[in-house]
TrEMBL record:
It holds the Pfam family CbiQ. It is a multi-pass membrane protein. It is found in: Cell membrane. The chain crosses the membrane at residues 20-38, 44-61, 68-87, 107-128, 237-257. Keywords: Cell membrane, Membrane, Transmembrane, Transmembrane helix. It comes from Gordonia sputi NBRC 100414. This is Putative ABC transporter permease protein. The keyword Transmembrane applies. Coiled coil: none annotated. Its main location: membrane.
Length: 258
């Protein structure tokens, strides 16, 4: 897998969050996101609480806002969709600066934007503090099926390699007179996509055979101090899950007051 491999979103610094066991951070992320999604969108104050939790984790993880905000632009397409909802939805309407907007559409747009933003922020925090090499053992410890774990990890490992290969093919086509914006070049683009797919499939077979020849049985072995962190203790579970517990408390309070 390459023990030294790190994904582009990883921030290589030392912090308490970086040192926390990966499996606990993953559970914390999932519980936090579910708490955010389950919170009624008609209420506003709970999302301030969720944002405060994220900011505290950023502080502990030494992740500056200026580093993480540009990487949150991945949610822009969803924001564009949300902006259109107040105009497209039906039902009761309200005038805002002379524009008639749907009340249901406004709530839907608010829910998409705030919940999506918090989910992306939490996911980026996990990615920034977790090396890719620690994911296989963490997933195995959490009981993820042994067939799915290697597939997921190999996808993370080779996505950068495939992206670089696509860029090299684009440069090669451009050097031979290709114009990516020209319609008649669509065939060349389609052929390139097919070529990348076939190469990926063949590479996957070669990697699988190489792993099997080295005794791989489908289970990711525990290698403390070499490939991953030691197994989490009860104290670490209690401490690292505090942000998730706080998020659940905020969501439960919101429902009790709704």
């Amino acid at each position: 897998m390459g023990a030294g491999h790190a994904h582009p979103l990883y921030r290589d610094v030392t912090s308490r969050v970086h040192r926390a066991p990966t499996e606990v951070k993953l559970v914390c992320l999932v519980v936090f996101v579910f708490a955010v999604v389950a919170t009624p969108r008609e209420m506003f104050w709970p999302y301030l609480g969720f944002a405060a939790i994220v900011l505290v984790v950023w502080q502990l993880a030494r992740v500056p806002i200026r580093w993480i905000l540009p990487r949150m632009l991945i949610e822009v397409p969803f924001v564009v969709l949300a902006v259109l909802l107040p105009f497209a939805e039906g039902g009761r309407r309200v005038d805002v600066v002379g524009v008639s907007l749907s009340v249901a559409g406004l709530y839907a747009a608010w829910g998409i934007v705030v919940k999506g933003t918090l989910g992306v922020a939490a996911s980026l925090t996990f990615a920034a503090t977790t090396p890719a090499r620690e994911l296989p053992v963490a997933l195995s410890r959490l009981g993820v099926p042994r067939t799915i774990t290697p597939i997921f990890v190999m996808m993370l490992r080779y996505v950068d390699l495939l992206s670089a290969e696509v860029k090299r093919m684009q440069i090669a086509r451009t050097a031979r007179g290709d114009s990516p914006r020209a319609l008649h070049q669509a065939k060349a683009v389609a052929v390139s996509i097919g070529s990348v797919f076939l190469r990926s499939y063949e590479r996957g077979e070669r990697v699988h055979l190489a792993m099997m020849s080295r005794g791989f049985t489908g289970a990711i072995p525990d290698m403390p101090g070499v490939a991953t962190s030691p197994r989490a203790t009860s104290a670490q579970w209690t401490l690292v899950l505090l942000p998730a517990v706080a998020a659940v408390v905020v969501a439960a309070t919101a429902w009790s007051l709704a």
